[in-house]
Design a protein that fits this description.
By secondary structure, this protein is α+β, with helices and mostly antiparallel strands. The chain has eight helices and nine strands. The N and C termini lie far apart (about 155 Å).
């Protein structure tokens, strides 16, 4: 029978046999001597592979044999594909090596055949390059350098437009270049050599002279403006610095005045407190109550005189005949009935 249009399979019956009986110690023969098993055999005519599986169940034997042949065929196809890939790589490597060998042999033949031609080509290239270098040097020293020197005023002026750090020096260079161009045009130094080497420069030189002269005049104007602006900026900066110094000096003076006033006020307050304290300490008239009977000085807490036992009044007379206010301890003349300091009524 055929399955998947490829695999052939067949079944055959089988018993446990002698080997199975030995493995089961004879129990199979005693219990079920007529029991049969199934052997399923698969064969692949393409790969020539086969698979054989045994099971008591016919379907299980078929499944086992079918899966076994499928796995075997898959592994066989993978091995064949790997071998084919390796063979292709080897053939490709051999082909590339053969091509390199052919190219090497061809190049070797061309090298031997064209050695004389290469030497001739090298000599020709050397002559061409040498002529070009000599021509370039002749052009540089005959035209380029003289033109740059004559137009140095224009070059420095254009450079000064883009350079801020060296603008003054470039403007001075532009003025110097204009002066040199004037002398050269009148005396014929580089201008004469240019005209001799190339006659068209005879018509161009006047324009070069006027352009350089104009550039020099513009450079003089810009240089004067630059210095004037710089002097103005210096004056403004000096005025700003002077104003800042004046403000700082005024601030320091104001600060010193405030500090002095504060110190003076503090000293006056301390001095007043010290004087009041010293007066309170040195003048015994303001420190106690005076007895009207015996004129003895008693403490503020006493109600009766310590000397004579008389009752002390809230307002007492001093030994000089003045009154002392019990509330603020201020000395008042004997003719007053109220305290001049706090307004307390005197007894």
């Amino acid at each position: 029978m055929i399955i998947d249009n490829r695999y052939h399979y067949e079944f055959s019956e089988d018993t446990y046999g002698v080997f199975g009986a030995l493995l089961s110690l004879g129990t199979t023969l005693l219990l079920d001597s007529d029991r049969l098993g199934w052997i399923c055999k698969f064969y692949d005519p393409i790969t020539k592979l086969e698979s054989r599986e045994f099971d008591e169940n016919r379907q299980l034997a078929f499944d086992k044999a079918y899966m076994s042949i499928k796995v075997s065929v898959m592994n066989f196809e993978l091995d064949e594909a790997y071998k084919k890939k390796q063979l292709e790589l080897e053939q490709k490597r051999i082909e590339e090596e053969r091509k390199r060998q052919i190219e090497y042999e061809k190049a070797l033949k061309n090298q031997h055949a064209g050695s004389n031609e290469d030497s001739n080509d090298s000599l020709l290239k050397f002559l061409i390059y040498g002529a070009l270098i000599i021509g370039a040097i002749w052009l540089v020293f005959t035209f380029a350098i003289p033109l740059i020197i004559l137009d140095i005023s224009i070059v420095c002026f254009i450079w000064s437009l883009f350079s801020k750090n060296h603008k003054v020096y470039l403007l001075i260079g532009s003025i110097s270049g204009a002066i040199y161009c004037t002398f050269d045009y009148q005396l014929g130094w580089l201008a004469r050599s240019l005209v001799q080497n190339a006659s068209p420069f005879k018509q161009i030189l006047p324009y070069i002279f006027y352009v350089n002269l104009t550039t020099g005049v513009i450079s003089i104007i810009l240089l004067i403006k630059k210095f004037s602006d710089k002097s103005t900026d210096d004056e403004n900066l000096l005025l700003i610095e002077t104003a800042q110094e004046d403000e700082e000096e005024l601030f320091l003076q104001t600060e010193n005045t405030i500090v002095k006033n504060h110190v003076t006020s503090t000293l006056n307050t301390d001095f007043s407190s010290s004087n009041e304290h010293s007066l309170n300490d040195t003048n015994p008239l303001t420190r106690g109550i005076y007895c009207n009977n015996c004129k003895t000085v008693c403490t503020d807490e006493n109600i009766f005189c310590e000397n004579c036992g008389s009752k002390l009044s809230h307002n007492t007379f001093t030994p000089d005949g003045d009154k002392t206010c019990q509330i603020c301890s201020y000395n008042i003349d004997a003719g007053f009935n109220f305290c001049e300091n706090c307004g307390n009524k005197l007894n």
